[in-house]
Amino acid sequence: MSSSSPMAVDDLRRREERIRLALLCLAFSSVLVLALIILFVFREGVPQILKTGIPAFLAGSRWAPTKGAFGIFPMIVGTVQVTLGALLIGVPLSLLSAICLSEFASRRVRTVMKPLIELLSAIPSVVFGFIGVTVIVPLVRETLGGSGFSVLSAALMLSVMILPTVTSIAYDALRAVPASYREGALALGATPWQTVTRVVVPAARSGLVTAVILGMGRAMGETMAVIMVAGNAVVVPTSPLHPCRTLTSNIALEMAYAAGAHQKALFATGVVLFVMIFCLNSLATFIVRRR
Amino acid sequence: MAHGLDLPRGRGSGTNAPVKTFAAEARNRPERSAGLFARLGLVLLAGICLAGLAGCRSGGRALIVAGSTSVQPVMEKIAGAFRKTRPDLRVDIEGGGSSAGLMAIRTKTAALAMSSRELKQNDPQEAGLWRQILALDAIAIIVHPDNPVASLSLSQIRGLFAGSVKSWKEVGGADRPVHILVREEGSGTRSAFEELVMKDGKAETPIDDYALVQDSSGGVREVVRGDRDAVGFVSMGALNPHVKAIAVDGTPPTFETVRGKRYRLVRPFFLAALQPPAGDAADLVRFSLGSEAARILQTEGLVGVFE
Q1: In chain B, what's the furthest Cα-to-Cα distance?
Q2: What is the pLDDT of residues A134-150, one digit of tens each?
Q3: Which residues 48-67 of A have a C-beta within 8 angstroms of B?
Q4: pLDDT digit string (tens) for B77-109?
Q5: Which helix (H) or strand (E) holds B245?
Q6: Which residue among A74, A124, A156, B5 is least packed, with the fewest CB closer than 10 Å?
Q7: Cβ B209–A234 below 8 Å, yes or no?
Q8: Is residue B236 classed as helix, strand or coil in its secondary structure?
């Protein structure tokens, strides 16, 4: 390095600058793609929403796009019901697994269980859908009645699908709580369970909420597997055994043959979905920032 | 695409020179990995651009047939046999649906359209087109093999799908609820079913809102196979021994009853074009109506119009 002259340093700095620019361009390209997608979806979808009328589109309950009826209210309700159902079943399971792994499991159990739970997220969603159709749907049909293609089946299946996401993020949040908190609580005479419920979980609260919200996003965005088990009827489900259709399913189901206003209406469905997911992500970011 | 991605490496001096400098630099520069990443990124971008350009090049002589996904599988088989007689010609069969196919011949992106529905005579864009019936397809009403119901009248079927018949008991079966299965909005099979079954004269009874929706004939068939209370409709070509086809007004859907026009739920498959086809397109149309194509149609569960 003794041969380094001021010129070589200058040269180095210029190279650094070039690299910085190149990387910036690459980083910007993904933002550009996002912007183009938003632009395209909104340009195709928004005129159709305005043509139908915002209240008629969002609150209308009849969907027959080939006959000029574009109401997506049943699908908004279906999406919310399936998502909440999945959270209701999946979140307690995931949070308790995360607490168990982080606070109570021995190192050996943890090193086996953590990768196994994460492996669950590597299973393609169509495989979950297939298991849903061949196991969950007949089970619901035989034990509870109805056709089996239902809000309940979809929620059950999605609760398993969100398990790895919620568990591993919640686990990380719990592990991030400093050991001194636990030691302090135990030193004051708290039992391990009291330590977890009164100290560790409150300290990790924002991370746990983020985990739940990301799980919610996963449940809301799932398409293929839900199409296979939800029955896809355009009705406002009044029982967990009724079939339902989610916003994502609507797009995937009908895009193959959709043309003209029908196709625009599917883009409009995408706009509504986009706004819903955007709100959810903003909420997650907000909660994380508040930490 | 693979061809396009290979290009940057094979371009010779243009890309080789900077690579050489890079290698020389890498030996005595500390920020080697950062430079490598930046270059990799640039090469990747260049590759994507080149691949995009390669995708744009236009092919040689090709005959493009586009349209109904119900007609597409059989048309692909017919085109496969046709290619053997005309190895010089490229024949591309594309899906997209009947309407998309008819649009494609208007914009001249396809020479022939496949349609699984009648052309709309009141639509000026479809009324003047040349069309030829390729085959007849029957819509079969299917139930689980264990379902004792074997024959239904057209109005009973309408009642089942409208949701007014709630129990199989009302149509001669066990006292069990009816689970209805239909195709999604926009499907050609669904619109043919609505036309043939749900329409009574001028009035069309809407399909029950609680009907389960599947987006393929195979999907409908597999659900019916697994649920002994289910009823659905599929193209006759999608029938298999795991489901039972119901006789409509006493007539089961078979090759003979469809050809003899005794089975009622029949829809024609069309080939359409802007003008009466000439040249390569005419050859393909002639082949599609010939005896070899008729055999292919029959193995696909369709009934050819010429023997």
Answers
A1: 88
A2: 999 999 999 998 889 99
A3: 63-66
A4: 999 999 999 888 889 998 888 888 888 898 889
A5: strand B244-245
A6: A124
A7: yes
A8: helix
